[in-house]
Amino acid sequence: MLGWALTFLIIALIAGVLGFGVVAGTAATIAKILFVVFLVLFIIGLVMGRRGPAV
């Protein structure tokens, strides 16, 4: 998921340099959303992975 966020960030940067403002804005928004989803899932994975053994 982090790879997708980075891909959309690169697309946004390239589109911004070339002057495609709408495409750059859309790609940047998608990258932000994917990054937040990645962080949430990462934190959930850390918390769930640190549980002690079930007794």
Describe the structure.
The protein has 55 residues and is mainly α. It has one domain (1-54). 84% of the residues lie in helices and 0% in strands. The chain has 2 helices and no strands. It has helices at 2-18, 21-49. It is rod-shaped.
**What is the 3D form?**
rod-shaped
Which structural class do the helices and strands define? mainly alpha
- Kindly state the percentage of residues in helix: over 70%
Low-confidence stretches: none
Mean pLDDT: 87
String of helices and strands: HH
> How many domains is the backbone divided into?
1
Give a count of the beta strands, DSSP E runs of length 2 or more: 0
Strand content: under 5%
Q: What can be said about the biggest beta sheet?
A: none
Straight-line N-to-C gap? 34 Å
Keywords: Cell membrane, Membrane, Transmembrane, Transmembrane helix
Pfam families: DUF1328 (PF07043)
InterPro entries: DUF1328 (IPR009760)
Keywords:
55 residues; 2 helices; single chain
Q: How would you summarize this macromolecular structure in one to three sentences?
A:
The protein is mainly alpha-helical and 55 residues long. It has helices at 2-18, 21-49. It has one domain (1-54).
Give the helices and strands, then pairings:
Layout (H helix, E strand, L loop, with lengths): L1 H17 L2 H29 L6
Helix pairs in contact: 1-2
